[in-house]
Amino acid sequence: MNLQLALLEKAAHENRLAHLLLFHGGSALHQREVALRLAQILNCSQPTPEGPCQECYACHKIISGNHPDVLWLKPLKTTIGIEQVLVWQQKVYFKHYEGNYKVSVIEQADSVTLPAANALLKVIEEPPERTVIILCAQNAERILPTIQSRAQLVYFPDLTEENWLTGLGEADQQEAARAFRLSGKNQNLATAILEHGVSLLQEWLERFRIAVEERDFLKLYALFPINKNQAVLYLQVMAVQAREGIFKGTIRPFELLAIGKATDVLRQQVNPRLVIEVLALELFQQGGALCD
Ligand SMILES: [Zn+2]
What we know:
Layout: H1 3-13, E1 20-24, H2 28-43, H3 57-63, E2 70-73, H4 82-93, E3 102-106, H5 114-125, E4 131-137, H6 145-148, E5 152-155, H7 161-168, H8 173-182, H9 187-196, H10 198-213, H11 217-221, H12 228-248, H13 253-267, H14 272-285
Parallel strand pairs: 1-4, 1-5, 2-3, 3-4
The structure holds zinc ion (ZN).
Zinc ion binds at residues 44-46, 52-53, 55-56, 58-59.
């Protein structure tokens, strides 16, 4: 465990943890594990300086996801909306059921919509007693500055490819290494690529590239249907390739901008097919081609 995480645990053990933490970088899984452990330390009936006991009622309930004072908020589909935050807000202000601390873990906090972020901000500004909110995000820059500035930032370093592969255990190592490279060393993206299937993803991207290069609408039509999660994944990998392409001088920056814009639009609950088609059209017009 790195020093920063050890200090966090110590602060939790001594009941002086910050009310708002922002975890960023590294893997979502690692962030989740640390959040769970902090929730346990804060609520364990017999914690030691080494950590939670893992045996008491609270420790068990937290690990199984059933502790009423440990609240999880994560995207429904692709965003965390205002309705979700309002429901969560009620639970936060409700009296503590059985725990010492009410701990809320907001996963993929960079997917909170603007109205939801404003509702969240209200809670952050006037948190009830003994409340800890942990925001988990890949990129801290995507969190509303007014929220970010109130949080203690906790950076999770990236693992190396080697560590990532070791941690995967059963997975096909060659396949995993391909996913890792395609992700631009982003573990969350690499995991998503692996779950989706590396070949399937590469094949789709190649067909998209050819359709754009040949400005061929029929080839574009053949790329659908895809669902929203797939579309987000494809756009993320395209963005990685575009970034690498700009670095090598084979891609012009507008392509990355167009991909970024498409990703933002897609997160706002729009038809994925429409978004991809608009992106392709933009690339047609600019005469661009996505190469790798
Ligand atoms: Zn315990």
